Amino acid sequence: xxxxxxxxxxxxxxxxxxxxxxxxxxxxxxxxxxxxxxxxxxxxxxxxxxxxxxxxxxxxxxxxxxxxxxxxxxxxxxxxxxxxxxxxxxxxxxxxxxxxxxxxxxxxxxxxxxxxxxxxxxxxxxxxxxxxxxxxxxxxxxxxxxxxxxxxxxxxxxxxxxxxxxxxxxxxxxxxxxxxxxxxxxxxxxxxxxxxxxxxxxxxxxxxxxxxxxxxxxxxxxxxxxxxxxxxxxxxxxxxxxxxxxxxxxxxxxxxxxxxxxxxxxxxxxxxxxxxxxxxxxxxxxxxxxxxxxxxxxxxxxxxxxxxxxxxxxxxxxxxxxxxxxxxxxxxxxxxxxxxxxxxxxxxxxxxxxxxxxxxxxxxxxxxxxxxxxxxxxxxxxxxxxxxxxxxxxxxxxxxxxxxxxxxxxxxxxxxxxxxxxxxxxxxxxxxxxxxxxxxxxxxxxxxxxxxxxxxxxxxxxxxxxxxxxxxxxxxxxxxxxxxxxxxxxxxxxxx
Length: 496
Known about the structure:
CATH superfamily of the largest domain: Spore Coat Polysaccharide Biosynthesis Protein SpsA, Chain A
Structural class: alpha/beta
Order of helices and strands: HHHHHEHEHEHEEHEHHEHHEHHHHHEEH
Distance between the termini: 43 Å
CATH class of the largest domain: Alpha Beta
Number of strands: 10
CATH topology of the largest domain: Spore Coat Polysaccharide Biosynthesis Protein SpsA, Chain A
Strand content: 5-15%
Shape: globular
């Protein structure tokens, strides 16, 4: 290996140890100066390593991990998190990143000392990519199969139907809210209560729209100011739960549209299949523009492409979900998830323990969001989905670059170089990933498109962008929901 590359690796490992020492000793009291000095040393070593890494992928991986060490140093010096919590989370991140760097270095040195493996390395990497692509495709096929629209053998009778409360939090909503309420009022559910909470709207039209439906039975709920330690959306859900009288409560956004028999079908599926919580995969309306066709499928990828059953974390979507009111109350209500971004995931996990959770596609409900709303939702979700841990962001990023984009890059590179074994293996991985994203796009919009299959490399790059923007905004910037910041309560919460 190049001596300068060796020196850079040694310096990075030493800097990682010093970072851990800063957090765990009295140097924490002067952490800003220490972190700034260490930042400069780590940055220079990283740049040197990149310069001399040549085609050694493990050295580049080492350099990438050091970038997240730099991010952690910025957290140590400039984060807005409370000191005791900050010390705990930065300690964990620094230690895990250092161990990852050490592991990469050991593997890299072992591979470097074995001669004649250049071709074999690319074959091994291609096989790994095929394995990763197979796992993603298998998980997608499974979720598509089990979430396919269910068929009910029995019809819910009006006399035996449980009472239903539809709960809608509304803040500064206008036309979307009007259309949503119109679609709800034409539903044929016999025992229906519609609650709309005016969540401290700053425009007059929102409460005016709600009150204009009063003669149709729509109940106006005046939202109270958000209490300390609560996310605004979760606080709105809690107020709606307190106001609801139905045996079943359905939560949805103002951009949701319902067909005539949709509410009867949803409640029937809950009752007849003995479930307590259900989350719906709606039909999304495809908007013009290539970026519009990426954000929603990417969001669905996070829910249906991962083998969530292994982690006991069922997929959920907040567009439209329903639960038995008694179960929500016995689970602690929304106070139990006052700071959780995806609060319905808590109830889904609790219900899934006793096979009481259902997640399925249903074309009787559709959703259409503006690109700006889709983008903000994705940014609001990404970092919390990885438990607000930069080391997990690093691992996911390396997976997307190495196993997802890497398969496509290896396929093209091997094709140019004439390495036909790698071409075949990497081509298989590329084909599997193309099929996977095309299937997710078809689930999102309920139709097959050529673009849905071909844009996955761009989608992967865009997901990396969203992931890092989300991480930066939560740590140092602003993350908004309906014009209100959600970052402070999220970042001060314990990871669960």
